[in-house]
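Quick illustration, no need to memorize.
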Amino acid sequence: MTAIAPLKSTSLESEVRSYSRSWPVSFTHAKGSTLVAEDGREYTDFFAGAGTLNYGHNHPELKKVVIDHFLEDRVVHGLDMFTDVRSQFLETFNDLILSPRGLDYKVSFPGPGGTNAVEAALKLARKVTGRESVVNFTNAFHGMTLGALSVTGNSLKRGGAGIPLVHATPMPFDDYFGQVVPDFMYLERLLTDGGSGLNKPAAVIVETVQGEGGINAARAEWLRGLADLCKTHGILLIVDDIQMGCGRTGGFFSFEEAGITPDIVTLSKSISGYGMPLALTLLKPELDIWEPGEHNGTFRGFGPAFASGTKAFELFWSDDELEKSTIAKGAYVESRFNRIAARHADQHELIVKGRGLARGLQLPTGEQAGKVTSRAFEEGLLVETSGPSDEVVKLLPALTIPDEQLRDGLDILEKAVDEALTA
């Protein structure tokens, strides 16, 4: 990649920054699926704020709602006080999202980000059951605060905790052993063997598609088997839908395809519709045993996010058009990836992964995947890597991306893969 002089501000910023290392330009404007840099160059965005911008950058109707909220001196910071926008958000969420799917959940606002939603879910599961242990899965990612980090698989991120991460037991995710081992054989054996040493878990937490873990998509039958196992043993099932919810896999919730009803669901990222901080922890009514204030946070009542979230429900979830479009676009990405994989099959095993518009192309090494994303950036495309060795080229474009822009971005990506594998 052509060297770019570091921005002046980097001397003030911590070394912990990451995305700016892959994309070393300063962005100034964004619209739809296009970002504009200071020099005026446009970049197609296949990143969408790591799944925070499912409806694209600065959607005009969502933007108007946010601007009006500020111009009219509406409540911006409200903690958990009653406000009109809070009530409208809850009522619309129930009318357009929960009720049509036959879901009966209470909604809690745990704080501004996904990790806050996960912390609330873990705390509540332990409070309800009186147990401490939680089962998580290999290659999982659930957040960066200590509770969420304890159920995360990535060793680099876990190492940043600086203390032992306890009360969590990792189990194999779907296809971890290449389907050689029957589903849940190990977990079920540990649960039923009095000599296994496994304390009965309070909960199992799972992503239906592991985003940071490498776009690993669990089969619907595997998810149903997990739900049945949890029910049999009196264990709560938590689905982390922070990155894969809000339509990323097609349906609003990523678990809809499997036909399961989790006990607790976490949502964040695109729930505000506009990239503003908001997170939800959904829980079955019988689990709502919180004492007032037992879990809270200063920024859990952000008025503009309620307003834009409500508008997003109305715009995109009053019918099934977005769901059908997402599934169709995802199928197109899959077909393009299959074509790339087939072309290189004689020399390299490329694995096509994902559901909906969460798609991955696994390369033999992380170095090769890095070359792909670097070359794509040079050609005006933002795309990241994921997986334990960053070996998966990961696509999370906005669900609203125009077909032509999606096609053009995939053209860039296809050439980048060809170059990386023939160099």
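The longest strand covers residues 27-31.
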